[in-house]
């Protein structure tokens, strides 16, 4: 049936993100549908108001603009903070290439803000094991090398090394972390893993097991050098395609008498080609990498960034552009801090006053600036800093003292 009409539903899982195809045309991801399908909650204004009231800090642009849009029990994290009780942050990255792209930065930039505002410790899992298991062509030593290179990219996002632990699964898998992995593995049946992720009998058994590895950093006693043996709740910021892992994690947590991790979900960072797929490191023309030169950035955006503008300049002036699908506008929504400027661009582009060329120029300048800043810090990362972030024998500060309370203008009541 689907083949006859050329229509398909949208696909969102940890390996594939694709919007619905209607009459052969790829549609943008329908996020409300995802929330229904996954059974998560939308983040609403009262929740943002509460966050602002509790912290005295204006919600991050990603929250204000609905880019982090969905959650599972984020309110529990706010309850803890209100009571002065600790929690920690957990996110991760599958190191599939030597350099990260700008879309990969989203959960990390958000974690950086959360760390600054709440003072929470952060653990970052680099799943070199996952990438090896799932990619038939990747050598295990290359996966590990990518993990270390990606760790250096992540270090350039400004995390506090005293509060942040970055680890490669291949290196860190032992002791208390491995005990949790095995406890989780014992609590998940083949059927559950297969049904959650859609595996079949010819998939390797590592794939079925991998959920245990991604689940276990949600439990604080996996990190004795940070939390000792304490059982501290955790908040996982991630793109919504990772939710299936944590649905299972939350089921298992109950059985193991751990806290269920809370989640806060991001929308996907669109590929240059349009809002129906996410930026992918393995499709180089879809992505802007953290190590791209200013010229490469300019050329990629000019050449590939999907435009919501009209076919001719004349028609564009008449009808205006569509910001919803325009990739340059969408990137500005993530990276242009100034709300007023963004609103003005939206107005001018929608009315046709601003051309696609002008919009692209603005996008190029903003992305070049962002990447330049990261590259400057990346160039200063030393082996000593790598050790401070990645050495599991160096204790961390999990005290919940906000590092930079003035991250964004404090609200004056
Ligand atoms: N599986 C994720 C990826 O391929 C990496 C990851 C591991 C992760 N743990 C996580 C992502 C926790 C978000 C939150 O990118």
From TrEMBL:
Superkingdom of source: Eukaryota
Localization in the cell: Cytoplasm
Top enzyme class: ligase
Principal subcellular localization: cytoplasm
GO function term, MF aspect, one: tryptophan-tRNA ligase activity
This protein's record includes keyword Coiled coil: no
GO CC terms: cytoplasm
Pfam families: tRNA-synt_1b
Keywords from the named record: Aminoacyl-tRNA synthetase, ATP-binding, Cytoplasm, Ligase, Nucleotide-binding, Protein biosynthesis
GO biological process, any: tryptophanyl-tRNA aminoacylation
Entry's EC annotation: 6.1.1.2
Similarity remark: Belongs to the class-I aminoacyl-tRNA synthetase family.
Protein name from the UniProt record: Tryptophan--tRNA ligase, cytoplasmic
Protein's organism: Boothiomyces macroporosus
